[in-house]
């Protein structure tokens, strides 16, 4: 992804130097590279900036096409992130401006306008310092980890993803079983859960109360596919594991943050 970020910065410099055609070529390459690497953040930012750039150049059809592509990168859940909401609103506002006075684009305009109107801020509750609230929160925390371990045991991918992105410590040792979540998933042979945990930072070298690593658990339970996964991760790292949708969302947040106001077309 580093090459994509470098090309986005390169395009920013080209735009500041009024080298618009060169910037278009650079951003089109970012689109290609982002698709190949399944980097939704790079793809969204490239299409958004291409839309802005084509609009500046008077190429409205190309601009609309790119804004459509940028819109297509967004999932509804992404809009909970302020940076993505801001970038998305900019895309939809640009689509409205380009299509408002064209009768043939009425449907396009209406869709974009509805999306802008649908954006509502959710009020956040202030944290409480009340003692009972703190104790209750701690109890819920332990219950959450119990539920997380059960989800790993039952191969409940959706639940595991949700818990991971709540920020749970993936290397937390269950005080009863003395296992980590990775031990649990390896013992039961849940390969998808194992890869998900590894990708998000689970440490396969942690030993349980019996001195066993996650790989040892897989060997003892005769889960050969899990052993193969752990061996490959040890040799190659986790880059070969495809990212989950929540990871794509987080990458998009980072990319939007890095590229915020980076391509000034003034």
Outline of this structure?
By secondary structure, the protein is mostly helical. The chain has helices spanning 2-16, 20-36, 40-56, 60-72, 82-99, 106-118, 131-154, 157-164, 181-188, 191-199, 214-220, 224-236, 245-259. It folds into two domains: 1-102, Serine Threonine Protein Phosphatase 5, Tetratricopeptide repeat; 136-241, Serine Threonine Protein Phosphatase 5, Tetratricopeptide repeat (Alpha Horseshoe), CATH 1.25.40.
Describe the structure.
The protein is mainly alpha-helical and 266 residues long. The chain has two domains: 1-102, Serine Threonine Protein Phosphatase 5, Tetratricopeptide repeat, CATH 1.25.40.10; 136-241, Serine Threonine Protein Phosphatase 5, Tetratricopeptide repeat, CATH 1.25.40.20. It has helices spanning 2-16, 20-36, 40-56, 60-72, 82-99, 106-118, 131-154, 157-164, 181-188, 191-199, 214-220, 224-236, 245-259. Helix 3 runs antiparallel to helix 4, helix 3 (40-56) packs parallel to helix 5 and helix 3 (40-56) crosses helix 13. The model is unreliable at 121-128 and 133-139 (pLDDT under 50).
């Amino acid at each position: 992804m580093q090459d994509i970020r470098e090309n986005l910065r390169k395009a920013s410099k080209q735009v500041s130097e009024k080298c618009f055609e060169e910037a278009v070529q650079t951003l089109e390459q970012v689109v290609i590279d982002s698709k190949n690497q399944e980097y939704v953040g790079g793809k969204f930012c490239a299409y958004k900036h291409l839309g802005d750039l084509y609009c500046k150049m008077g190429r409205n059809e190309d601009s609309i096409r790119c804004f459509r592509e940028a819109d297509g990168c967004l999932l509804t859940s992404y809009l909970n992130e302020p940076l993505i909401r801001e970038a998305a609103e900019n895309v939809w506002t640009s689509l409205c401006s380009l299509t408002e006075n064209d009768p043939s684009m009425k449907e396009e305009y209406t869709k974009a306008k509805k999306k802008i109107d649908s954006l509502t801020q959710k009020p956040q509750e202030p944290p409480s310092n009340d003692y009972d609230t703190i104790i209750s929160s701690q109890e819920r925390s332990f219950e959450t980890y119990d539920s997380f371990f059960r989800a790993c045991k039952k191969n409940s991918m959706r639940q595991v993803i949700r818990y991971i992105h709540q920020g749970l410590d993936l290397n937390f040792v269950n005080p009863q079983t003395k296992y980590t979540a990775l031990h649990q998933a390896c013992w039961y042979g849940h390969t998808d859960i194992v890869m998900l945990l590894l990708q998000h930072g689970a440490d396969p070298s942690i030993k349980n109360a019996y001195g066993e690593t996650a790989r040892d658990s897989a060997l003892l339970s005769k889960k050969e596919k899990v052993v193969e996964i752990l061996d490959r991760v040890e040799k190659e790292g986790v880059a070969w594991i495809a990212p989950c949708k929540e990871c794509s969302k987080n990458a998009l947040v980072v990319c939007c943050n890095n590229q915020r106001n980076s391509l000034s077309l003034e």
